[in-house]
Amino acid sequence: MGIAFTENASRLHAPAGIACSIDGAELRSFASDGDTPQGHVPRAVLKPRSTDEILSLIRWANDSGTGVVPVSSTGRRRRGDTVPARDNVVIADLSGMNRLLHADARDKIAILEAGVDFGTVDDLLQPHGLRALRPLSPRAGKSVLASFLEREPPINANDHWDVADPFGGTLLVLGNGHCAPTGGAAIEGTLAEQLARGHRQMMPIGPTNLDLLRVLQGAQGSLGLMAWAALYCERIPTMERGWFASADALEPVIDLARELLHHRIGNALFIVDRVQLALLLARDAAAFNALCGALPAWTLFVGLSAGRQAPEEKMAWQQADLRAGGERHGVGLAESLAGHTATALGQRLRVAEPVSFRDRVSGAHRELFFLQQLDRAAGFVPLVRDGLTKAGLGHLPLGVYIQPMAQGVYGHIEFTLPYDPDKADDAQRSAAAWQAAAERCADAGAFFSRPYGAWSDLAYRHDDGIRSMMALTKSILDPAGVMNPNRLPYS
Amino acid sequence: MSRKIELPPQVRSELERIVGARHISTDPAMLSAHAWNTGVGKVPGAEKFAGIWPVAVVLPESTEEVAAVVKCCARHKLHFKAHSTGYGSMSNACSPETVVIDLRRMNRLEIDAKNRMAIIGPYATAGALQAEALKHGLTCHIVGAGPAHSPLASATSLLGVGVTSQGTSMNARNLLSWEWVTPQGDIVRGGTAGSGCGWFAGEGPGPGVRGMIRGFCGAAGGLGVFTRIGYKLYPVPVTGPQEPTGRLPQLGMRIPDNAGFLHAVWPDWDSHRAATFELLDENLCFAMLRMPPDHIGWTVTGSNADYVDQVKRGALPEVAQPASDRNWTLLTLSRSPAEHAWRLGVVKEIVRRTGGRILELTDEHAEVLFRNLFTSQFVPRVLRPSGGITTSFGVLDSFHFLPRAMEAGQECLAGENLPGGKLVEGGREEHWSWPHEGRYLWTENIINFDPASKPARIAAARALLDHFAISWKNPVGVMALGLGPVMELQGEQIGAPQRYIRQVKNRLDPGNASRSNEYVLPVVPKPVAAALPMLKPVILSRPVLGLMSRVVGTKGM
Amino acid sequence: MHSPQTLEDRRDFLARCTRCSQCKFVAAPRSQRHASACPSIDYGQFHAYSGGGQLIMAYGLLDGAVPHSAEMAGAVASCTMCGNCDVSCKINFGETVEPLDSLYALRAQLVHDGHSPAPHRKMMERLRRSGNSCGQPRAERARWADGLAFDGMGKAEVLLHVGSGLAYEPAGWPGLRGVVATLHRSGIAMTHLGNEEGSSGSLAFDLGYVDEARMLAQGLIEQARQSGAGTLVTFSAAALSAFRSVHPRFGLSFGPMRVLHITEYLWELVEQGRLSLAPLPDLKGRPVAYHDPCKLGRLSEPRQTQDSGLDNRMSGILVSRTPSALRFGNGGCYEAPRALLRAMGVDLVELERHHASSYCCGACGGVRETVPEAAALAARNRLAELQDSTASILVSACAGCTGHLAEHAGSVGRAVQIQDLLGLLAQALRPVPALAG
Questions:
Q1: ipTM score assigned to the predicted complex
Q2: Are B502 and B522 spatial neighbours (Cβ–Cβ below 8 Å)?
Q3: Which of A119, B319, C144, C251 is close enough to C2 for a disulfide, judged by CB 3.0 to 4.6 Å?
Q4: Residue B346 C-alpha, separation from nearest chain C C-alpha, in angstroms
Q5: Is this entry keyworded Iron-sulfur (chain C) (predicted)?
Q6: Is C334 helix (H, G, I), strand (E, B) or coil?
């Protein structure tokens, strides 16, 4: 569609037809997030409802020199990537594009718009016998596409072959104002025509010599945005059972996780320390404190499932292998810990709540995450823990979460520091201590694949070659620099 | 031979200082291997040597030497073309000013068993990598080129699909961190290696810029030189060197404990497809491969003479009989008897339920077929009958399209592979198909032809070109061969990727020093670019396709 | 008259090389370190040094695209003609490429065109002059036999052929003499050709001197015929290779005379109960690896007089006209040496590359004399393979291999011992008394 211009109260020339908000409170809500106290206030929040409207918006932004910060999630955001880093910016709020465009149980794939969130996705998929792969207990308002676009690791480690998972084909709108279908979507015809022919947008790579999905992953909306995507899903199992595998030390737990990954056992696998597990299980501070005293030091959560094919038999050999692995590595297996069953936790992980579980007990938290190989993960724990102690913050609970990725080639290593935001001293001192922890981790080999806030500068300190490639990429995909300006170091 | 360029003495001296005098040659005898027009995967012309010969070949030993060679080429306005094992014509120069960079001396291979990955250089071959990985109960993806190919080249620069993709993914997704010498001689490390954190992840910090230089296909030497990568490996319940069974050339491999190796057939493609969707459920199989029966026949016979003799006597095993064309070779790998019983039991039940039948295999045939599947030795062997193959219908999508792909393969062969035709006699179609990661279909229709025969070359070219025409008329899936000039025709309908690729090429390599015929065309005048999509119907008309086939069959491609 | 194929005859075979690089690697590698099949490219590194690279170069020579040059001669001269590329290639390509026949033809072409490398020419001059490529005096060829008793011509059932390598290598004589003495004590009627023993033509053929190879072969066959013996037993792996796979190219044979390698003959006698083997205390409990010499192994696979042409069947399938004559490397002399070692109580282990895929030690094909650094590298590579095995003793049944490997044994790290099989046999062989005369 062409672009018409309407004059509105703030003298913003926005493309006609796109819902636009200049409500002060709403605008101000985008000027900060859980980690970013003060950014720039956007000029408007534009709410496209279709790919054509997204295109109009981006082309208008190019013509008018207006920055665009894409936002697909709702609720309390974090990490600063959706907070404008300069003025003269509008928010492209895609949360209203929340349709399930297609689902196919046979191919275990679903096509979702950007605004579908974790609070609703399984309800949409359930009639098709599917459910979404998901990160560790995402909040309800988190956009499914945005989550994976930002390389959030799914707990379904055995289905995470590659960082692009669980994406199949996608439709991107680049900063240059053009659509870029990727992978299986890069084929002749509209989506409807493609679906009618039987295409299922299953291929995650391409087309040809390009892989723009991979390029836009981790770009924090600074190169383009995603209108819709085909996502690989999980067929709803016929049987499902959770297990806790616990030990006093991290290493044997990692060894067991590795063995299970190498055997491709478990539809969900992740490692947590007692604090992180308590955060997942507890509904309030009292329960949290009790759990911290009762839970083992390290726990591997293992979700076993079976589908339609001789499910009892499958569950039996999986459980036998899990038991044998536990014995081999000196890791205790339990169906419940401190009165909580693993099966119930597995079910609860599928119920997204409005507030992050990390904030449930103390009201706020700091997070630090990076990538490293699983056999090096244990070395980071004392680095962070000792740093907090030296900073006089030893009284604060420190949670550790290790998510195997790429089927165990490496892991997402995450530290969570819950704190009471009303305790100003804790809040201030923990901010400084956290920065120091990030630096120590960086020195020890932490790879900040997702450069946010406290560690965004650290991420690029060694990597001039990549910065020049980033600059090249930006100049080609978003030559006018309209997408999330000043967010990443492109120059 | 094209006009002969002499390497100026001072350039030779510079290159000698970089790689050592022993590792540079300008002698035609040494250059001949880089002008050999084998046509593997393509249709060769009548001439065995390409029209273009390189000006020199150098053998660097390190990334720094590669970078220095590239910069030397830039200083002297020379081009360069790097290759690893140089399968087929991949090592050929694309201009007479080209210095061929043969990466043979860069064969680093390091297994990180705990983290199921390897760090490899360009000349670590798949066969060597698999041998080293198996010591740790790991294996690697091996693409169609077989054990002698370079996984680094495949992962960074070419297609990267192979017969065990069900269990070992594909190389675009097995590539972890990467090291790359840009067309201007800068060394860039992507992902974790760039931050000095190891070789385990290729994306970030921030955007995955690798996607600008390696998509579904790589740049085939048209965009600098990849010199080292992290590479994902796959655990298997097989450890240690596997002593072959059988006698040369029919080497086999003992089928491991708790493994199932079955060959099943179905009465029609619909039931085959129904079975496929069930077999993909819960990743029952480590590998699933559909081969045309004649290719199975080539594999279970030790020579062409043996094959033809068995055909004439009707002595080929049932797996290699034409009627067994709706088939799957199925490999299950388990780690315990209970798991094995489940996998094998479910697979057999699916075959039965969908109307399929499991064929008997002798131990010898099973071991030969298993080894060829596990090591991907199959594909080089497919060249044995005639020495000439090209491919068509390399498509990826839902298995929904499997029956349609088979029809399309038959359509583009147009009966030329039936007795009396110009292509090697075979089945109704010649599709190799397999799933990726339990998800989607890869299938390609192999066209076998006698490269010494002009009519056969023309027929092969026609089948290849017809495949584009058929695909564009009624797409069967994402087309794997959407490369170079093909993308100029198709690209505008799928988001114009060729425009971005051209920008990448021209920005990184303004002088087109890193020259390849298998990458984007660096310059397409705007009127031509605009006209090409409109000309597509003309180009795909029967008379034009016929003319193009004759040109390709004569001059090669 | 039968003649080996010329390069022109091989044109279509050359053209079929797909440059797949399989020829550089053994068919079933067990490690990266020992995955190579080709000592030549391990040395030269340029693709032209590989089997396939030489085919392409040869095609260029035929086509006029590649002129003769020192670099071409260097690459050709670095090839040991070991035939490993041929074994590997046939895994994929069966009868359609057969690199080794083309490599022979390429060397012959170089000779024909006057571009045979100078060291090759010198070796041939010496061969012509004194019957051996080292230029040793003809009069000393039979010194090894001094003092040993033999039966006269016409009276012997067995004609011993020693070969120049062993005949002029005094270090090997104790083993040679010991075996001969035991055979004598066993009542075997033997003779030998003395100082006039001729060359098998193996080296001449390897170097591309086809006509001289033919003449040498004819000469030796005539000598053998005149001996009246029913069995020819050679101590030379190279000679056995010539007898079984080169002479048939000329349409030559020893006729009704049986031709055996000494290891085959001895094992036959052991199996017949005429000889026994005593355990060797020095080797007890020590793993021993056996090095398959190229000439004794894959290159001794019998070649039939055959039509090397291919028919085009089924619209493009290239089919051997004499499929029964196809050779894949299985028919070499592999088992007799191993059987003898086992019978001596040896704990035999296999190196990573063995039987038809055995890696050449570098000594053959004129490489040791022409490109000594290439030969040395091959030896070191082979010794490294030994070092990566559980064995520290390497036994070979070829005097050339043994000598060459022993020469370089000191240049590798862990102490290794190179042992000639003949020497071990001399210690272990016993006549079986009941039949010993």
A1: 0.96
A2: yes
A3: C251
A4: 33
A5: yes
A6: coil
